[in-house]
Write a structure and sequence with these properties.
Length: 383
């Protein structure tokens, strides 16, 4: 009997049993091309839907990892590859009795900061196979490098306007031009000048610009832009270091918002410190800002590790070591005070500890609550 619309026997088989005889010989029951095509279309449709779902899941994972990776160059390490941080932590788990080099200690500190910044990552690495973990690290790196590019681009424009306001150079520094920055520009040159020299000295300026052996500018010197009022005390080189207005503006531009960078006036002193303010207290955050501002003041047009005799990666390490490896308890105390100063500068003052019960009781919320109770009591008495 034929099926409606098929114009043929069921699945194309004849009603007289000849199809079954054929099926026994060929081990298949004949079907129509139309029926087979419908089943193939249905199977392919299911495959396409599954592929679409897989693609959507992969895209969501990529977007998540890339966005999470943006924190790495800002809050963990500016240069070290993520793989190196993971490898160093694995090495320490396996070689518990081995002595560590300074570089290995830096990598391990980086991994600890990584685990703090991305708390999910440590367990995620343990649950993934090698190929999956490699793919995840690649996506994190993509986000990390993208954020570094965005931040250097942001500071390139902003630093030009800040230097124009702070130093009033003639002519003014153009935001879209880096070729006329660096030591060829008096304003930028003064800010980049090593703390042990004075840019106002014609011999110093000529020696630096001529790149003579007597005036080598390298990562072994603290630049003037890192000091309060952009001047260093040769007798006490720690005084005012890391406290320049330009650094605070750079930090706020990256970690809060570019517009907030204009709100940095005030001495930053006072007893009220915002405790547990992790971003302002992270040493690597500040090291990143100082490195990027040095790049913004220079005349190099693309990010690279070495600029002439100046190695940015070693400069980064010097800044992190200044915070992380003080020589003793007294230096550690000064570092803590410096970090508290930064917290106040970035996040302002806080007086919550002064909100005693007596003070709160006189404020309008408490006063209104007391008034409403009195009105309720009066209404009950009138009844």
């Amino acid at each position: 009997m034929s099926l409606p619309g098929d114009g043929s026997a069921e699945d194309g088989s004849a009603g007289d049993g000849s199809a079954l005889i054929t099926a026994e010989a060929s081990l298949c029951v004949p079907t129509t091309p139309h029926a087979r095509a419908k089943r193939r279309i249905a199977a392919l449709t299911e495959e396409i839907e599954a592929l679409k779902q897989d693609k959507a899941i992969k895209q969501r994972k990529t977007t998540y990892y890339v966005s999470q990776g943006r924190a790495i160059r800002r809050m963990v390490t500016l240069y070290s590859p993520i793989d190196d941080l993971v490898d160093e932590n694995d090495r320490r788990c396996e070689e518990t009795d081995s002595e560590n080099t300074t570089e290995q200690d830096r990598l391990q500190r980086g991994y600890i900061e990584l685990a703090k910044s991305l708390p999910w990552m440590h367990d995620k690495l343990a649950s993934l196979d090698h190929e999956e973990s490699e793919e995840m690290l690649k996506k994190l790196k993509r986000g990390a490098d993208s954020a570094r590019g965005d931040d250097t681009g942001t500071l390139k424009d902003l630093v030009a306007s800040w230097v124009n306001i702070e130093c009033c150079p003639t002519p003014l520094i153009r935001a879209d031009d880096k070729h006329h920055r660096g030591f060829i520009n008096d304003a930028c040159g003064k800010l980049l000048c090593p703390a042990e020299w004075r840019w106002e000295d014609p011999t110093v300026r000529a020696g630096i610009r001529g790149r003579t052996t007597s005036f080598i500018v390298s990562e072994n010197s603290w630049p003037a832009f890192m000091y309060e009022n952009y001047e260093a005390n040769a007798e006490n080189l720690e005084h005012g270091l890391m406290k320049s207005k330009l650094l605070v503006m750079g930090f706020k531009a990256i970690f809060t918002s570019p517009s907030s960078a204009n709100e940095v006036d005030g001495d930053g002193d006072g007893a009220d410190v915002i405790e547990n303010c992790r971003r302002a207290r992270r040493r690597s955050d500040q090291a990143k800002v100082k490195t990027c501002i040095r790049f913004a003041l220079s005349n190099i047009t693309s990010w690279r590790t070495v600029d002439g005799d100046f190695d940015y990666q070693i400069f980064w390490n010097n800044i992190v070591d200044f915070f992380e490896d003080p020589p003793g308890a007294a230096a550690r105390s000064r570092i803590n005070k410096l970090l508290e100063w930064w917290t106040r500068k970035v996040f302002g003052r806080n007086h919550r500890q002064d909100l005693t019960l007596e003070v709160v009781s006189k404020m309008s919320v408490s006063a209104l609550a007391a008034q409403r109770l009195r009105m309720e009591d009066a209404a009950l008495d009138s009844e």
